[in-house]
Amino acid sequence: MTTPDTAAQRLAGTALAPAGSRLVLAEWTAQGNPGEEHLYQAPPLHKHGEDEAWYVLEGTLRVQVGEQVQEITAGGAVIVPGEVPHTFWNPSPNPTRYLLVMGAQTFGLIEAIHATDDRSPARMRQLYAAHGATLLE
User: Fold this and answer.
1) 87 φ, ψ to 5°?
2) Are the C-beta atoms of residues 45 and 83 closer than 8 Å to each other?
3) Backbone angles phi, psi at 68, to 5 degrees
4) Which of 7, 10, 89, 100 has the alpha carbon at shortest distance from 55?
5) I want to staple 6 with a disulfide (CB 3.0 to 4.6 A). Which of 18, 89, 120, 124 is the partner?
6) What distance in Å separates the CA atoms of residue 95 and residue 31, rounded to the nearest whole number?
7) Do residues 131 and 108 lie in contact, with contact meaning Cβ atoms separated by under 8 Å?
8) For residue range 76-131, what is the model confidence (pLDDT) as tens digits?
9) What b/e sequence results for 121-132 when a residue is b if at least 16 CB atoms lie within 10 Å of its CB, and e otherwise?
10) pLDDT confidence bin for 40, thresholds 50/70/90
11) How far is CA 104 from the centre of its chain?
């Protein structure tokens, strides 16, 4: 029997993150990046202890895993093991919809980044460290 916070829900642009769960499932959209590749709206190269997985629903994502860059199109997926440096971006001018499976600590980092107005390098290093992650750029 599931409780209301773990029951299936429509994700579209949101995350399913039940209290006490160590796993989060999100459906998000990466806006198009005309001309600037991953320099626009991409997380910096980083690593953390939790695994992460992307499944592309529509469009294209490029995911850097260590030194390798993989292009993932609709129906494709990639898993990044914990402690492996990674980042991702939408290389096309069109939006890309994807599912992201991540640990609760990684989701907490994303929420903390979105909640702060201070995007200075020092503040970002502090937030990453507070959530068990390391910035590599």
Assistant:
1) -160, 170
2) no
3) -90, 140
4) 100
5) 18
6) 4
7) yes
8) 999 999 999 999 999 888 999 999 999 999 999 999 998 999 989 999 999 999 99
9) eeebeebbeebb
10) very low
11) 12
One-letter amino acid of 13: G
Q: What is the pLDDT of residues 54-85, one digit of tens each?
A: 999 999 999 999 999 999 999 999 999 999 99
What SS3 string covers the chain?
Answer: CCCCCCCCCCCCCCEECCCCCCEEEEEEEECCCCCCHHHCCCCCCEEECCCEEEEEEECEEEEEECCEEEEEECCCEEEECCCCCEEEECCCCCCEEEEEEEEHHHHHHHHHHHHCCCCCHHHHHHHHHHCCEEECC
Contact 109, 47 (CB under 8 A): no
Least Cα distance to 84 among 114, 105, 53, 112 occurs for 53
Say which amino acid occupies 123. Answer: R
Read off the pTM: 0.83
Residue with tokens 């599912």: 99
